[in-house]
Amino acid sequence: MSRIVRKYGGSSLRQPEQIKLVAKHIADLKKEGNDVVVVVSAMAATTDEFISLANTLHPNPPKREMDMLLSVGERISCSLLAMALDAEGVKAVSYTGSQVGIITDTAHGEAHIVDVRPVRLLEALENDQVVVVAGFQGVSIHKEITTLGRGGSDLTAIALAKAIGAERCELMKDVDGMFTADPHIVEQAQLLSEIDYETAQRMARGGSSVLQSEAARLAGEQQVPLRIGRTTTDKVGTIITNRPYGCPTIVGIARRDGLKLTRQDVEPENAYKLERLIHSDGTWLCWEVSASKEEGIYSGLTIVQARENTPGLHRCVTVTLFDANIPVAGIVSAGAELWLAVPRDQADEAVRVLHAAFLEKGWLARKNEE
Ligand code: ASP
Ligand code: MG
Fold first, then answer.
1. Best label site of 199, 264, 303, 321, fewest CB within 10 Å?
2. Which domains does the chain have, with CATH numbers?
């Protein structure tokens, strides 16, 4: 009998029908004789809707109140899933982050987990119940409700998996796993079937939306074996452990949208000290993720390499984008990563042409080569 923590993202819980389907999958996992903890995100779009709602009432809502509001999204989905499990004949109980002892610091909106005291969760498992936990939230050392940053349900799952000594933590999404590029954009994108924590973290930091980057870091630090899979299949997906990833030359391309670029006066010899800088025509540009659509007209692409300085990579990137008529707003190499910024409305095309060029050079894993 194993202990498994399984997390479902909001897009897997969009409609009551999907919640019922998730309950069936969980019922099967339980019937196989496992101890099961389920962590849920808010139903799709709920968090964004709450944020818009708050912004209609206040230009800059107090962070404490935002956390009170946003934490509700996950409470809705965990209670509904517990009901759906009960309807399936599975004994289940839902808990908030606070109730399962997720203790955080006081940084509202981006709190860090400082301790996990899963007393009630373990009691419920003892009673043979499936435990459904509201992700993305905890309670601060000052007893206030906090949230863990966007996408933070992944973090909840990993922290709980560690705290209860789970055999593995599974993150169920609306894609098959982590890919060499976003499979919705690049048809040739290849599933990364087994990667190490460090590689997963570099893809996540670059913007691969399938895994929150803080969650990837925590999984590595705590050595929690991870699996990312699709909710509606039982294909294995991506396994993330500490076994080094033997990829060819380039792991993949990750992308982050809505960047704003501003000029920075930096001595070139100090530039490497600053994250978020890219180089353009002799000046340094600082990028930040912008809240407003008008400002955030760039996308950042991170090309994650297996090792530093792939010979010919810089040239291949600039020539490929030049041939595709895509202007490069800035580019910089940072260890085993190459960062570049392009206009957001050309970012899909940029990822496609770069992915194709890397495939042609034999730098990326190919489809059907598994
Ligand atoms: N519901 C939160 C968000 O949308 C947390 C999560 O999805 O993990 O960011
Ligand atoms: Mg999410």
1. 264
2. 3-174 (3.40.1160.10), 250-369 (3.30.2130.10)
